[in-house]
Amino acid sequence: MEIYSNIPAFIVWKNYAYNVNALSNSLARLSSGTRIVNAGDDPSGLALSERLRSQYRNTAAVATNVENKINYLITADAWLQRITDAMHRMSELALSANDGTKSAEDRANLQIEFKQMQKEIQRITSGATAAAKYNGLYLFRGGNGVPLSTGGGVKSGFVYLQVGPDGGQIFKEESINLTTTNYALLGSYTYYSYGSVSMTLLGSTHKAVRWASLIAGANLSISTQTLAGSVIDKLNLGIEYLSSKQAIVGAEQSRMEITLEGLRDYEANMRSAESRIRDVDVAQEATRFAKYMVLTQVGVAMLAQANALPSNVLSLLQ
Fold first, then answer.
1. Which of 8, 16, 41, 13 is closest to 293 using CA atoms?
2. Model-level pTM greater than 0.90?
């Protein structure tokens, strides 16, 4: 029997301290929802979960980029439709002017609206005051759409878009150019010449058509029946050109939507993987909590008993 060193009390205290610490950790896990409260709980698991967390947070950020690009493309498509509508109206006016029953005054009136449609397309697409913009970017002036700090031009290059959580995962597209300085060849039409009296076919020639000539060409007119007849085929080429641009915008939008779905799936998978590493199993942890709660209470009772053992020595000294 010893009184100087109470070894049983020390052993009980050691077990009690361990159980109290385990109970505290269990409380922290249940209250935080994560099984890794500090780095010492699972160093390798913590490192892996942080890498996964970085991936899904970056993925969520680039998904926002893709959503912005989809909105950019939707805006561009809406403006393209307005331009196409204007050109359809120009075609209708040309067909109406190519009518022998119309007077010169009738064609002059049609010509007024025809020119207004040209000016509207110019207003949408061309110059520093072009109406077709998205968040300050010009949609139809080519390059990357960013206005130059001096002058009325835009910067050359591409519209870059980060579409993945890692470096180098980018898309790049050059914005559409529908300005009055775009001399893209749209194709050619056949011009037929007839005799002035008997309307005998004299011959035919192929004439090239360029975009700028449709929206800014001074010679594009429906003021006479002959001119109106030659404009119809030109406008048909212009409408086909615009349709091809709408197809490009639509295809890119479809691509962006597929990219967005892929990013959402990837983010969900990364979140699921990180959850399996980091999230606490509440049922399991609640069982562990109950275990250490009981052990802690028992430890307090046993510590009291162990501290009472040295008092038995007094019976030998009486």
1. 16
2. no
Nearest to 126 by CA among 178, 79, 84: 178
Of 3-12, 48-57, 180-189, the least confident: 3-12
**Cβ pair 132, 124 in contact under 8 A:** yes
Q: Output the pLDDT for position 192.
A: 66
- Phi/psi at 187 (5° precision): 140, -160
What mean pLDDT comes out for the span 24-44? 81
- To the nearest 10°, report the CA torsion of 9, 11, 16, 18: 150
Chain mean pLDDT for the chain: 88
* Percent of residues, the chain, with pLDDT higher than 70: 93
For domain 52-274, give the fold.
Answer: f41 fragment of flagellin, N-terminal domain (1.20.1330)
